[in-house]
Specification:
alpha/beta; nine-stranded mixed sheet; globular
């Protein structure tokens, strides 16, 4: 154990990149929570695409969608980057955007077989993820990750805490940034923004204890064009103060637009 007098200047939260508006640091675990259909998966997909475009190893492991569905969403997001929420996109620009994200890994997963350890080994062995260096791993979603107990698979209601603990250990072991979508208790779907707290997450107390950062998304209103106004609230952040900000979700193109990208 080092003595205080000889401890070098600590920098445990040195951020290595900002992807889709969210900064990440090596070894950190973030949970992203919302009711179904608000845009969690789409935001994760944009984060992975932008991390790959910036040259970092990046992967989305998804228990909810097939590879074809994820690629379809990714293409529509490229159209959004090229032409905005509703305009026709130039195909050459779309292809160029997708080409810059070509190294992103999309993993369709089974909630009966694909454990966190299995995902880790696949990324290391098949996709040359670094043993210890910055990378981004997104998982959709926490409560679908298979966790085996004494009598078999633990139920979704109980497995979130154990899955969060294993994801956090994986992040720290490799220096990866890990972000996972997390389910909410059904009773929390209709709560007002000022009533939302960490108790809304589905699972035991470890679901709220293990992550370094917890974000909550909810829909504020729907525009006439079909795009949704979304509020993001940071319920917990070990790297700094909590905050709230706004986004739009362009449902036509599965695109989470940041504040400086919003349209009237």
């Amino acid at each position: 154990m080092p003595r205080i007098a000889v401890t070098p200047e600590p920098q445990p939260y040195r951020f290595f990149g900002t992807f889709a508006g969210l900064p990440f640091w090596p070894g950190g675990l973030t949970l992203l929570s919302a009711a179904p259909g608000i845009g969690k998966t789409s935001w994760l997909l944009r984060m992975v695409m932008e991390a790959a475009q910036q040259g970092f190893p990046a992967a989305l492991g998804c228990y909810e969608h097939t590879a074809e569905e994820l690629k379809y969403r990714l293409r529509l997001q490229a159209e959004a980057k090229a032409a905005g929420a509703h305009s026709k996109a130039d195909e050459t620009r779309v292809e160029n955007i997708l080409a810059r994200a070509a190294e992103a890994v999309l993993l369709p997963l089974s909630d009966q077989e694909d454990t966190i350890r299995g995902i880790e080994e696949t990324l290391l062995q098949d996709y040359n993820f670094p043993v210890h260096a910055p990378a981004l791993l997104a998982v959709d979603y926490l409560q679908r990750i298979p966790v085996v107990g004494v009598t078999g698979l633990i139920s979704e209601e109980r497995r979130g805490g154990e899955a969060a603990a294993v994801l956090r250990a994986t992040a720290r072991r490799h220096g990866w940034a890990v972000i996972a979508a997390s389910a909410l208790r059904a009773s929390a779907f209709e709560e007002r923004a000022d009533e939302i707290d960490l108790s809304a997450l589905l699972g035991d107390e470890r679901v709220t204890y293990e992550p370094d950062r917890v974000l909550m998304m909810w829909r504020r209103s729907l525009k006439p064009c079909g795009c949704a106004e979304v509020v993001v609230k940071v319920l917990k952040d070990r790297t700094g103060p909590t905050k709230t900000w706004h986004m739009q979700f362009w449902g036509e193109r599965f695109y989470p637009a940041l504040e400086d990208e919003e349209h009237d």
